[in-house]
Design a protein that fits this description.
Aldehyde Dehydrogenase, Chain A, domain 1; Aldehyde Dehydrogenase, Chain A, domain 2; binds nicotinamide-adenine-dinucleotide; 22 strands
């Protein structure tokens, strides 16, 4: 089996390293490819080529730079189905989820095509008599993305199109667990005729990341992944003088008030908790029922969880696929057990399911733990699997306190028909992405992906105008031109 090549300076480069990992289809456990664990020399070569390419790319007018993105958008649309199948093959989610993921990726390309408007600076004449002040935005240089496994097609696009449109050059380091999707996308990036060295793909794991952190030619890093790694990259990257934005882990609560529309709330909550097998950073992990919502919601969500069709994401009618690896499956099952040991009632047990035809696959069915102690490990640890913990409280203030006591702040949602309750929640909840009668409050490409607390380290988030600010540095020019210096016309 061939080892996946890197893409550096406009060419596919066969890896010379002997260190590699297997890429496994989590539904069938079939070996799909091998991914090289690129050493520092490869990162340094990519950074050198990207730095060379930057000299001309930043001088290319913004209106011309976006022509490559228009072409990329067309190529992504044309190849959406093929890329979606690849995501499902290596990541295990359903084909519908993979298609949705690529739609979100494409939206970011579309928004970045507006860079000739978005990158503009501002100015003011006569800040003092006869003196004008101008603020312009200039690109940073070589930038890099370090990406997680759960959205291999979408997450690099929170950054890459904006970075390129602003005149930077770029290196993507995909998750070593799911490198095939970016391989496919880089085939399209090479067709989009970017000049050599403007976009580069380097595969690898921790040593590759460490080389990115150490390389002085790389000026900015965008990271998405777990909180411990986010902290590590944020602190080391910053101490090396880089601009860094790190989106971390999550533990997202949804609150169900007694007046919520039960049918809609249950359907949306189930999709949030069990969609993508709970491996979204915006997955609901805790459902907090308030007052009389307890009994009706508990019964309804249990039925929905039991009925969910689980299987190979490529198969018709499947509503939930696998988790990413056997290690992940074991870790999730151990956390379920810990929940039971801490006193929770295992209302729906999704461990050890029988999925005919896929007996070796990394499947866990939807699982519900009831009466979870808010102080227990299971209530405070990111599970990243299809496990929903139910907690009951008496009123909305207690529910909001639960939200605000969490170390994470990626998302919090409220289900209600009350405008006043919705406003109170929006005002008081300490999370960066808020859903009101929404279960996955994923910001569109023209809004920032706003995590808070341990879910985000930095100032500027991915997507939209935040990305434009992140990928540019401001320069202020204060000018005086005396009349008497000029020839009179
Ligand atoms: P991860 O942190 O294990 O890996 C992310 C990236 O970091 C990978 O490219 C990996 O190669 C690299 N990496 C891993 N360990 C490293 C180390 N010790 N040193 C340097 N680099 C290292 O995350 P994952 O398991 O791939 O993804 C799941 C996590 O990502 C979850 O915690 C999820 O909540 C989070 N996530 C967050 C968001 C968000 O927007 N906040 C979005 C998606 C995923």
């Amino acid at each position: 089996m061939n080892i996946l090549p890197n893409y550096i300076n406009g060419e596919w480069q066969t890896s010379t390293t002997t260190e590699e990992l297997e890429v496994i289809n989590p539904a069938t456990t079939e070996l799909l490819a091998k991914v090289p664990l690129s050493p520092a020399t490869v990162v340094n070569q990519a950074a050198f080529c990207a730095a060379e390419a930057f000299i001309n790319w930043r001088r290319t007018p913004a209106t011309q730079r976006v022509q490559h993105l228009f072409l990329l958008k067309y190529l992504l649309e044309e190849n959406l189905e093929d890329i979606a199948r690849t995501i499902t093959l290596e990541c295990g989610k359903t084909l519908a989820e993979s298609r949705g993921e690529m739609r979100r990726a494409i939206e970011n390309v579309e928004i970045a095509c507006g860079i000739p408007m978005m990158m503009q600076g501002r100015n003011l004449e006569d800040v003092a008599r006869g003196i004008d002040e101008i603020m312009i935005r200039q690109p940073l240089g070589v930038c890099a993305a370090i990406c997680p496994f759960n959205f291999p097609g979408m997450i690099p696009f929170w950054f890459l199109p904006y970075a390129l449109a602003c005149g930077n050059t770029y290196i993507v380091k995909p998750s070593e667990k799911v490198p095939l999707t970016m391989h496919k996308i880089f085939e399209l990036l090479s067709e989009a005729c970017f000049p050599k060295g403007v976009v580069n793909l380097v595969h690898g794991a921790k040593p590759t990341v460490d080389a990115i952190l150490e390389n002085p030619q790389i000026k900015a890093i965008s990271f998405v992944g777990s909180t411990p790694v986010a902290k590590y990259i944020y602190s080391w990257g910053a101490s090396n003088g880089k601009r860094v934005q790190c989106q971390g882990g999550a533990k997202n609560p949804i609150i169900v008030l007694p007046d919520a529309d039960l049918e809609m709330t249950t359907r949306i909550a189930a999709d949030s908790a069990f969609g993508c097998a709970g491996q979204r950073c915006l997955a609901a992990s805790i459902a907090v029922t308030v007052g009389e919502a307890k009994q009706s919601f508990t019964e309804a969500i249990a039925t929905t969880a039991i009925d969910r069709v689980v299987g190979n994401g490529l198969d018709e009618g499947v509503e939930m696929g696998t988790v990413i690896s056997s290690q992940s499956k074991t870790r999730i099952e151990q956390l379920i057990e810990k929940g039971v040991e801490s006193g929770a009632n295992l209302l729906v047990d999704g461990r050890n399911p029988n999925i005919p035809g896929y007996e070796q696959g990394y499947f866990i069915r939807p699982t519900i733990l009831q009466d979870v102690n808010p102080l227990s490990e299971v209530a405070n640890t990111e599970i990243f699997g299809p496990v929903l913990s139910l907690i009951h409280v008496d009123n909305i203030d207690e529910a909001i306190s639960l939200v605000n006591n969490s170390q994470f702040g990626n998302m919090a949602c409220l289900f209600t028909r009350s405008g006043a309750a919705a406003r109170k929640f929006r005002y008081e909840a300490e999370a960066g992405n808020i859903g009101i009668n929404i279960g996955v409050a994923a910001p569109m490409a023209f809004f920032p992906f706003s995590g808070w607390k341990q879910s985000f380290f930095g100032d500027l988030h991915g997507q939209g105008s935040h990305a434009v600010e992140f990928f540019t540095q401001t320069k202020v020019v204060v000018e005086r031109w005396k009349d008497e210096w000029s020839r009179k016309f």
